[in-house]
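Exercise 3.2. Students should predict the tertiary structure of the chain below and write it as structure tokens, then compare their answer with the key that follows.

Predict this chain's 3D structure.
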Amino acid sequence: MRIRPAVKDDHPALCAIDTVAVGDPRRTVDIAGWVAQGCCHLVEIDGEVAAYGVLTHHFFGHAFIEMLMVGASWRRRGLGAALIAHFQAMSSGAKLFSSTNMSNRPMQDLLVKAGFRPSGYIDNLDENDPEIVFYSPLEPNAT
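Answer key:
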């Protein structure tokens, strides 16, 4: 397993493992933007893109895992946890945030196992499915 920054040539493979991109062309545009901004990292196994995550810094000045996607055939192998640990290690500051829908129990469980704590929720993003915000306390300058 290798975690590295995504590059433009990775775009088709990233879109192929993204379950939303299959039916929503806006996600393919989002992925291209994340890659261009240098905030998208991927997990590569034997040369194949298996998962990706996006770490931004525009959540009230804090690091924020904006997206975490593991290809369907690669799930339950620790790739999401590896990406989260990678982002925790590369984040400076006191906190790292992420969020997920209340209906997404697997992501909630993954975040809690990675040391994140619930920090509140946001209504009205997705109808009848609040967004739960999580944070992970970090050591200052953990990089």
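Discussion points: Helices lie at 11-17, 25-37, 79-90, 105-113. The longest helix spans residues 25-37.
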